[in-house]
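User: Sequence recovery, please. Input:
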């Protein structure tokens, strides 16, 4: 029997089984790989769209921020505008190049600003930033009444993927624009702030500086800040650089304490328990990488009541006025400081329509005290002429001439004149036998400087008075020059305002009542609609500041550099009339230095003198000028040239905000100090055992351009008073003098992603 060959391999054999397994495994792997590839591609597409969605959202946010920056710029340079699409002030889209390298579809962008809404606290025209609100703990403006305006911005941005539909994001941002009145601060400095008092000093009210804060009180004394302190620079227990004065030399070694209020209003020292000054340098010298350490320490210690640039504090500048920058070392005598703030106190100077900066300069003109004045006094120091007019800031062609009251003039001019009389011995022979040679020398101010003329007489008897006396104007021992005086008589102004308002009596500076006679007391042609509560005095030919560059041109009439405005008869209430174009109170402003003789807007009653609490019936007031000097009521002009540091006749009480200038420390390499905030108001008398009460706000906004002589205790022209200086509670309540400038700050109060339908709803609500 023959054998059969073996069957060929097949599925039923061992090799077939292996093949089936391989095929099955391969099939499963193919399916799995296909699934993985599909998932990977899908995931990549999803991740790609998510990335594009994020790009779209970021683009929308960037558009909103671009709108925010435009709104900020407009508010800093303009007082009013409309964001209506298609209008001159509509928000602009960024250039297409801004989005280069991305997937943003610039043709689908949209950026729209809404209407500007005023936000107030119920019962007030202002908004109160409540320090008790936890959201405001680190708000630099907490505790202040401000002008608040909110504006919403909506933005839409689209990105276009390589495949699939476009991706669009919609957002809205609400911006809070806060105009904080300058006088919402107890002390406001537009530059470095130095405070180095010898005796104890307490500062009630908020303090801000657009620079560094230098604090170093005298040995054994305390400098106490009771409320929030903010600085756009840093805080140093040290003098300002370049201060070579005796005060500056002792700065670091002074042992006096500095305290700030913590969250519970308790005084907490700038020194820690180990006696180390925990200023911005953390006691280890000025090293930039220590600022963040100070931020953490200050936030923990004072809970937002002490903030610097480390906390993000930004400059506050008045509307239309640029940032101040100091030129410490002028080249060839040319001062290149950016000093635009001084333009606010300068005379009317409307630009020509052809000026390339016409719009900006017009806005500055509208912010000036001069162009908001209800009474504009123009003084020509060369001729002595004094004229009156009223101003219309919107249409200068509506300015009109006024006439001085027929009785007591409101403003008068007295050029400086010093008379020196000397007498020779009795002549015993010759033509003038038995007579006396009398030589009289008269000194006056001229454009080229002081000028003297002499005359000789032969008299039978010597004159009753010899020596040197000031027969007109006054001599300023600080400035070391004679001053041509423009005197502003508050009693005459009270009567003039009362006559305009139809009132029959006024209270004079001596406390007595006087009747008002329109025929002799009224300002001719002044109407209630003209009155704004601001009196401005322009001394013609004074230095002028370019509001764009901040540089100052020299005086066209050098005689003006010897001029000053002196306020007399200022005791009792200032004239206050509330009409169509005016608010309560009075502001006196000038481009010249100011001298305040005696009490102002206060009765001077020692029993009620206060640095914070207003008297009954008091209204807000301000004094604004190139510098402010306080004189006692008994200051004697006649002796002002020959008597240095004369005794003050008594205490002085002033209820007014003081807005003024200063000469910075080490200006031009002088090594001299600015004098610090405690010497911002100047003095010319010996105030030993006498006191000054200043109830208001101290503001240093610019460099002085007329009273440029630096503070110098070595001259011995004054001895300081007991300083009782505080923050007027009227200002704390939001009652400010007429024309108070505002400094701008900005806060984002809301940012929200929107759906497409919500976006359209918000857009429709703008009602453009």
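Assistant: Recovered sequence (768 residues):
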């Amino acid at each position: 029997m023959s054998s059969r060959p073996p069957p060929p391999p097949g599925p039923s054999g061992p090799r077939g089984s292996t093949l089936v397994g391989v095929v099955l495994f391969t099939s499963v792997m193919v399916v799995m790989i296909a699934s993985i590839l599909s998932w990977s591609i899908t995931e990549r597409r999803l991740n790609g769209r998510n990335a594009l969605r994020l790009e779209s959202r970021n683009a929308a946010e960037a558009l909103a921020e671009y709108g925010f920056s435009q709104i900020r710029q407009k508010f800093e340079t303009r007082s009013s505008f409309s964001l209506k699409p298609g209008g001159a002030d509509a928000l602009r889209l960024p250039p297409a190049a801004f989005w280069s390298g991305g997937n943003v579809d610039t043709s689908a962008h949209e950026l729209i600003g809404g209407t500007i809404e005023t936000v107030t606290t119920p019962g007030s025209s202002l908004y109160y930033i409540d320090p008790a609100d936890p959201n405001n703990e680190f708000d630099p403006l907490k505790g202040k009444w401000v002008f608040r305006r909110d504006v919403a911005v909506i933005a839409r941005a689209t990105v276009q993927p390589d495949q699939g539909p476009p991706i669009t994001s919609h957002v809205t941002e609400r911006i809070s624009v806060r105009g904080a009145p300058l006088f919402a601060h107890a002390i406001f400095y537009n530059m470095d702030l130095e405070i180095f008092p010898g005796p104890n000093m307490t500062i009630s009210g908020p303090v801000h500086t657009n620079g560094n804060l230098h604090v170093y009180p005298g040995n054994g004394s305390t400098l106490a800040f009771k409320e929030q302190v903010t600085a756009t620079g840093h805080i140093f227990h040290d003098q300002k650089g370049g201060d070579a004065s005796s005060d500056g030399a002792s700065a670091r070694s002074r042992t006096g304490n500095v305290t700030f209020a913590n969250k519970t209003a308790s005084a907490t020292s700038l020194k820690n328990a180990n006696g180390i000054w925990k200023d911005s340098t953390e006691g280890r010298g000025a090293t930039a990488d220590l600022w963040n350490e100070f931020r953490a320490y200050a936030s923990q210690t004072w809970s937002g009541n002490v903030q610097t640039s480390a906390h993000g504090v930004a400059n506050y500048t008045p509307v239309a006025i640029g940032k101040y920058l100091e030129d410490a070392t002028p080249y060839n005598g040319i001062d290149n400081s950016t000093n635009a703030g001084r333009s606010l106190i300068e005379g009317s100077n409307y630009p020509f329509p052809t000026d390339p900066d016409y719009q900006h300069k017009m806005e500055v003109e509208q912010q000036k005290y001069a162009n908001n004045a209800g009474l504009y006094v123009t003084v020509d120091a060369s001729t002595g002429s004094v004229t009156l007019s009223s101003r219309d800031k919107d249409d200068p062609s509506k300015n009109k001439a006024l006439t001085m009251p027929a009785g007591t003039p409101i403003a008068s001019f007295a050029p400086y004149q010093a008379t020196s009389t000397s007498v020779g011995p009795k002549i015993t022979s010759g033509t003038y036998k038995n007579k006396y040679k009398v030589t009289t020398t008269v000194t006056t101010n001229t454009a080229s400087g002081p000028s003297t003329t002499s005359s000789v007489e032969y008299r039978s008897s010597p004159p009753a008075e010899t020596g040197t006396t000031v027969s007109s104007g006054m001599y300023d021992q600080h400035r070391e020059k004679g001053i041509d005086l423009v005197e502003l008589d508050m009693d005459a102004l009270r009567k003039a305002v009362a006559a305009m308002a139809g009132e029959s009596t006024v209270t004079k500076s001596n406390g007595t009542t006087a009747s008002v006679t329109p025929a002799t007391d009224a300002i001719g042609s002044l109407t209630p609609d003209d009155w704004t509560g601001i009196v401005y005095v322009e001394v013609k030919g004074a230095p002028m500041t370019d509001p764009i560059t901040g540089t100052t041109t020299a005086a066209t009439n050098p005689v003006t550099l010897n001029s000053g405005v002196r306020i007399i008869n200022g005791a009792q209430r200032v004239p206050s009339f509330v009409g169509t174009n005016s608010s309560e109170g009075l502001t006196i402003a000038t481009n010249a230095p100011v001298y305040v003789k005696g009490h102002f807007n206060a009765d001077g009653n020692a029993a009620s003198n206060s640095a914070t609490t207003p008297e009954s019936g008091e209204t807000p007031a301000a004094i604004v000028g190139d510098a402010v000097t306080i004189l006692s009521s008994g200051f004697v002009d006649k002796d002002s040239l020959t008597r240095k540091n004369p005794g003050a006749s008594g205490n002085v009480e002033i209820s007014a905000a003081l807005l003024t200038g200063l000469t910075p420390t080490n200006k031009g390499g002088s090594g001299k100090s600015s004098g610090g905030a405690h010497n911002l108001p100047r003095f010319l008398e010996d105030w030993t055992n006498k006191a000054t009460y200043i109830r208001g706000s101290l503001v240093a906004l610019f460099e002085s351009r007329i009273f440029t002589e630096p503070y110098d205790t070595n001259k011995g022209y004054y001895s300081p008073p007991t300083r009782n200086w505080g923050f007027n509670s009227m200002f704390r309540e939001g009652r400010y003098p007429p024309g108070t400038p505002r400094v701008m700050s900005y806060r984002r109060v809301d940012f929200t992603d929107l759906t497409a339908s919500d976006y359209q709803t918000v857009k429709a609500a703008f009602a453009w």
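The longest strand covers residues 145-159.
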